[in-house]
Design brief:
heterodimer; A: 592 residues; Penicillin-binding protein 2a (Domain 2); Beta-lactamase; 2 domains; 7-stranded mixed beta sheet; 5-stranded antiparallel beta sheet; 21 helices; elongated; B: 171 residues; mainly alpha; 5 helices
């Protein structure tokens, strides 16, 4: 070819470069407009974004000292990507030997044919521990070395077997404080939630947020992947060591007395903080699926807040408090007990059907005389008596921050279920139903200078990196401080004079026993009782209040015999765990 | 006729006798060189801009991928932290601690055997403080430096501002 003389070399270079540039432009346009480009665009629209669910890590639950009661551990979901599976038998064998899955089931799952868009991934197992995943990973690596990329279909290969990490709720203390904590249904990864206890009460706070977000897969569009902040963590008022000691004491007591069930609650009467709340039965919260087996029909998860019962003579402290507060009686007011008193046309007898003769009010409490307290109630009058019960919160919820609190309405004058005799029976804790937590809240007024505190289990919560502490709530002042001190001294004296099994060497405690007959087929049974004890100490500066309730003790029906020693055992542990010196030492130190 | 012809023929002005444009006209090859040069210059500028654009796009894409990877790593680390806390709680649970204490020869103390000692200034064991209380503001430095957040114009404008401020300050 002969180049025309009119074109210089530079012109030729220009033409070549122009052609080259034009070619590039042409190709660019071609790429943008070709049929393949349309497919690519469609693919980008379909797969250019990923819908991801972001979920907060569920908040932790700590005891008052920062010991973890509920946390989260890393577990794995194991599955197969069907497109890459070359040896289903090897996968089934590995899953059976390491995870404990059923070989046949896994083989069937892993042998499914891959169908694009339909059958892509199959979950084989979930909540697999990390140590088992490490074993699978090791085996997969070994197989891959001997059979790279599963080229030989006869040799074992775990190609296609994949695992994804996620979190699972864990309760490191197993059944410790299970009645208080409740549980989270972690097996339901989509709709899991808290049940019972603080897990249910504070579910929204613990859960944080859960939402679906669209994440662009185009790295140029990817600015920041949204994250969900962790749910709030809770610091409970529970003391792990006191809780453990309390549960141990309760279990021994239930066993040794042959009781059907039992409850012990320890509260700080100054601020309403629950230090321990033990109830039977309990369950390992890590195996919450046993719930229906353990809590059969009618058995509440936490009897301390959900089981109403007739408390018996422990209730007499409210009757006496009301009478003292209204100056109806004084500690040395005399009463001659003839063994029977008629109220509303019904004869009321003492627990032993005996006549105890001349008594003071201290003696009436010491011997737990129904006749005397019925007389006190009649002297107080119906209106005042029920007014004071209302002030003590009887018939009302305490609104403790635990799910499942129950309340039994108090039958008052004017109600169709109220009769005149109720004034007498209510005065010694029959014909009235309460929960242990109601008793504690009411009695806190007696231990706390007349101020009644709201019981609670939440000490603080941590949200967005800040710790918010809860405050003490005074929910009423049903009696004066003088009345509270007087009654406390009366209860201290009555325990001492009785040489009660509730007494603890070196420590002054106030308390009252209770034995309530249980109605069976409409009549009170003398062989089936609820044995109780409520007490607090040190009496001059109360730092703990303990409520003991044993259901249907078999060895002895009396609260003074079965429940009082449990209170003593509890207090002996409490004074050590709470660093409370004996009264002599404490007063000596205070004097200095 | 001839007279008429002579009459119409006028003398040519003297300045038209010289071809001035001929003296200043560039050689044709020079004009072509200039055109090609200008074209090539434009091409180089376009390629330079395209190159810078590609480079920045590449870096942005790389940063995007790194963001994705870091987010994944962050989630992984959060799970690891949670798991480590759980493992720690398991090995320090009350039952395990009691077993360890028993194995080491400790036994529960009886209240009568406890000796109390006064420690001046000691207010007792404090309950858990796992985070600062609300109201305390934490000063946190900017994660991304200004250099990566401001445009060239911002930088220039602020530079001029700083310069004018310093000039006014010294006058």
């Amino acid at each position: 070819m002969r180049i025309p003389k009119s074109l210089t070399r530079i012109q030729i270079l220009g033409i070549a470069l122009t052609l080259f540039a034009g070619l590039i432009v042409f190709q660019m346009i071609n790429i943008q407009t070709s049929a393949h480009a349309k497919n690519l665009n469609q693919w980008a629209q379909n797969y250019g974004y990923q819908v991801t669910t972001i979920q907060s890590e569920r908040g932790y639950i700590y005891d008052r000292w920062g010991n973890l009661l509920a946390g989260n551990k890393e577990v794995y979901e194991v599955g197969v990507e069907l497109q890459y599976v070359v040896n289903p038998a090897a996968i089934a064998s590995a899953m059976a030997s390491i995870v404990g899955s059923d070989y046949t089931t896994i083989l069937g799952e892993a042998s499914q044919p891959y169908v694009e868009g339909q059958s892509v991934y199959v979950t084989l197992a979930d909540f697999v521990d990390s140590d088992k995943i490490a074993e699978i990973d090791k085996l997969k690596t070994e197989y891959n070395k001997s059979n790279p990329n599963g080229q030989n279909q006869i040799l074992p290969s775990l190609l296609g077997l994949v695992w994804t990490a996620h979190l699972q709720r864990i309760y490191p203390e197993n059944d410790l404080a299970s009645n208080v904590i409740g549980f989270y249904s972690y097996l339901d990864r989509e709709n899991g939630r808290g049940y019972n206890g603080v897990e249910e009460e504070y579910n929204d706070l613990l859960a944080g947020i859960k939402e679906q977000v669209l994440i662009p897969l185009d790295p140029y569009d990817l600015q920041a992947i949204p994250t969900a902040p962790a749910g709030a963590s809770l610091v409970l008022t529970i003391d792990r060591e006191i809780q453990r000691a309390t549960e141990s004491i309760l279990d021994k007591a239930v066993k040794s007395t042959g009781s059907v069930n039992g409850t012990i609650v320890v509260m700080n009467p100054r601020n309403g903080e629950i230090l321990a709340m033990a109830s039977t039965p309990r369950m390992n919260l890590n195996e919450y699926w046993n719930y229906s087996k353990i809590y059969t029909a009618g058995v509440p998860f936490n009897k301390a807040i959900s089981q109403v019962y007739e408390p018996g003579s422990v209730f007499k402290i409210f009757t006496m408090a009301a009478a003292l507060d209204t100056n109806t009686v004084k500690p040395d007011t005399g009463f001659v007990d003839t063994g029977v008193i008629e109220v509303g046309g019904v004869d009321i007898y003492n627990w032993d059907r005996g006549a105890w003769g001349p008594q003071t009010m201290v003696g009436c409490l010491q011997h737990s005389l129904n006749v005397c307290l019925s007389w006190v109630a009649t002297q107080l009058g119906t209106t005042k008596f029920y007014e004071y019960l209302d002030r003590f919160g009887i018939g009302h919820r305490t609104n403790i921050d635990l799910a499942g609190e129950e309340v039994y309405p108090l039958s008052e004058p004017g109600d169709p279920t109220w009769y005149e005799v109720n004034l007498a029976t209510n005065s010694f804790g029959q014909g009235v139903a309460v929960t242990p937590i109601q008793m504690l809240m009411g009695a806190s007024a007696i231990a706390n200078d007349g101020k009644m505190v709201a019981p609670h289990v939440l000490k603080a919560y941590i949200q967005d990196g800040k710790q918010y502490n809860t405050n003490t709530q005074i929910v009423g002042m049903p009696i004066t401080a003088d009345t509270a001190h007087t009654l406390t001294n009366m209860l201290v004296t009555s325990l001492k004079q009785e040489s009660s099994d509730a007494l603890v060497d070196g420590y002054s405690v106030a308390g009252k026993t209770g034995t309530a007959e249980i109605p069976v087929n409409g009549e009170y049974s003398s062989s089936q009782t609820n044995a109780s004890f409520i007490g607090w100490g040190p009496s001059d500066d109360p730092q703990f209040m303990v409520y003991v309730w044993l259901e249907k003790p078999a060895t002895n029906i009396w609260g003074s015999v079965v429940a009082a020693p449990v209170f003593r055992d509890e207090v002996k542990q409490l004074v050590v765990l709470m660093n409370i010196p004996p009264d002599s030492v404490r007063l000596n130190l205070q004097g200095n | 006729m001839t007279e008429t012809a002579n009459h119409s023929r006028r003398p040519t002005p003297f300045w038209k006798k010289f071809n001035f444009s001929q003296a200043f006209k560039q050689a044709p090859w020079r004009s072509q060189i200039q055109l090609v040069g200008l074209f090539l210059l434009g091409l180089v500028i376009v390629m330079l801009v395209a190159g810078i654009y590609l480079s920045i796009s590449g870096q942005a894409a790389e940063a995007g991928l790194e963001t994705f990877n870091l987010s994944y790593e962050r989630r992984s680390l959060e799970r690891t932290i949670a798991d480590t806390k759980a493992q720690l709680a398991l090995i320090t649970s009350s039952s395990v601690m009691e077993q360890r204490a028993t194995a080491m020869g400790f036994e529960p103390v009886d209240p009568t055997n406890v000796v109390y000692v006064v420690v001046p200034g000691y207010t007792g064991r404090q309950t858990a403080i796992l985070a600062p209380p609300p109201g305390i503001t934490e000063t946190q430095g900017a994660v991304v430096k200004n250099e990566y957040r401001e445009s060239l114009w911002d930088w220039l404008f602020q530079g001029i501002n700083r310069l004018s401020t310093s000039v006014r300050g010294t006058s």
